[in-house]
Amino acid sequence: MKLRFQANRRSFLLKSAALASAPFFAGSTTGHAKEADNESARTGKEDRAQWLAIVERVSQPVLEAVSQQKLRAIMPIEAAKGLEQERAQSTHLEAVGRLLAGLSPWLEADPGHDPEEEKLRSRYQEWARLAVRYGTDPKSPDAFNFGSNRQSVVDAAFLALAIVRAPTQLWEKLDAATKENLVRALAETRKIQPGFNNWLLFSAMIEACFCKYGQPWDTMRIDYALRQHQEWYKGDGLYGDGPDFHWDYYNSFVIQPMMLTVLDAVSAVTERWSFLRKPVEARARRYAAIQERLISPEGTFPPIGRSLAYRFGALHHLAEMAWRRDLPEGVSPAQVRCAMTAVMSRMIAALGTFDSNGWLTIGFAGHQPSIGEDYISTGSLYLCSCAWLPLGLDATDEFWSAPPQPWTAKRAWTGADLPADHAIADHEIMG
Predict the structure, then answer these.
(1) What average pLDDT does range 204-229 have in this prediction?
(2) Cβ-contact 169, 104 below 8 angstroms
(3) Are the CB atoms for 385 and 102 separated by under 8 Å?
(4) 54-57: long-range contacts, CB 8 A cutoff, minimum separation 24
(5) Which of 175, 391, 407, 411 has a CA positioned 20 to 30 A from the CA of residue 290?
(6) Could you give the domains of the chain?
(7) What per-residue confidence (pLDDT) applies to 113?
(8) Which residues pair with 299 in a beta bridge?
(9) 0.85 exceeded by pTM
């Protein structure tokens, strides 16, 4: 049976956001400009509804399929020509692990006051647990491949990130057999030697998950990843992806969010890496300031570097710092909310972003297959979910309740007075 995301099956959330987001969902170029100009008229409640509409549109095909053990049967596999069969070994774990990594704070959050949002959240909580159950059960038709291909260490780490971010919904509420299968599956990836780059943090993330939940864990994998990244620090809030600096978004896709989460996960057990907390957090705040400044007045950001098919997943780190309530001085939660809303709405509306059945296609702004590197497939694209972390904040939090504010680039290009921007130096961090 083919599952299809259809307009008449969308929940109230899409309908409630329709007035505010219609130009974007229509893919109108005129709508993009008009929306950017009218950002000051939007409320946090409207923005949250629009974020949830995007969540539902992106997530529904994946979670509904895996909840019925039909993900392998119906999920398309778009990849570079000739690599479809190879990517089929990893793409299903990619889709679920990455999607849950971004959804998990919202799944974990306390119930709010909107009954329709709670209805959606309750359904997705159940589906997320079923995804973990079926994905780690060797007997399920949707069993994921752990340890059988190099890519699996990457997406086992994103799944571990999700589990760490949602301890109640994605660990405590799992039945005993699923917990056992999950631990076994994650441990299968230990046989894979990570690359000498950001991949060290994938191994560290898995071990940090084991540490948090009282499982045997390997301190060396964490120590090596954290210390090596300190050696690769290049200055002004940015790390190299390995020994060299790359102008891409891997500081946001992986490096800085995972370093912060690894340090959090192990802190209750050991203070061994506590000396890293101050510099890592200071650099994280600086990089969040840079990310916010990269968002143009029109709600775009530079298409620089590899993995652009992750779309607004490039804002993972900015979302992380907003969710942590640790944004840099001079960057308000409201301006981050408005900037991220503009980016996500614009990208999600680009024609060709979804196929006829609601699955994401390879591209940055629409369907652009040539953007997809040889490691990119349909499942890879769901890393975009990591921009949704602030949904884990209550609707009454300042991020959602404060009046709209223009973000830095929008203020700068309208002539508003701005404080000077400065780099940070190591002596300032450590002082």
Answers:
(1) 98
(2) yes
(3) yes
(4) 54/344, 54/345, 54/348, 54/388, 55/103, 55/106, 55/385, 55/388, 55/391, 56/10, 56/11, 56/13, 56/14, 56/120, 57/5, 57/10, 57/14, 57/348, 57/354, 57/358
(5) 391
(6) 7-430 (1.50.10)
(7) 87
(8) none
(9) yes
25 pLDDT more than 50: no
Question: Per this entry, what is the length of the chain?
Answer: 431
Task: Work out the burial of residue 313: count CB atoms within 10 Å of its CB; fewer than 13 is exposed, 13-18 middle, 19 or more buried.
Answer: buried
**Mean per-residue pLDDT over the chain, rounded:** 92
Hey, what are 11's tokens? 């929940």
Q: Are 345 and 47 in contact (CB under 8 A)?
A: no
What tokens appear for 389 in the block? 């972390």
Q: Of the candidates 195, 149, 148, 166, which has an alpha carbon nearest to the alpha carbon of residue 388?
A: 166
Question: What residues pair up with 360 in beta bridges, in sequence order?
Answer: 354
Q: Token pair of 404, please?
A: 């709209």
Distance CA 270, CA 207 (A): 13
Q: How far, CA to CA in Å, does 9 sit from each of 15, 52, 60, 258?
A: 11, 15, 10, 36
- The mean-pLDDT minimum among 35-39, 204-208, 240-244 falls in 35-39
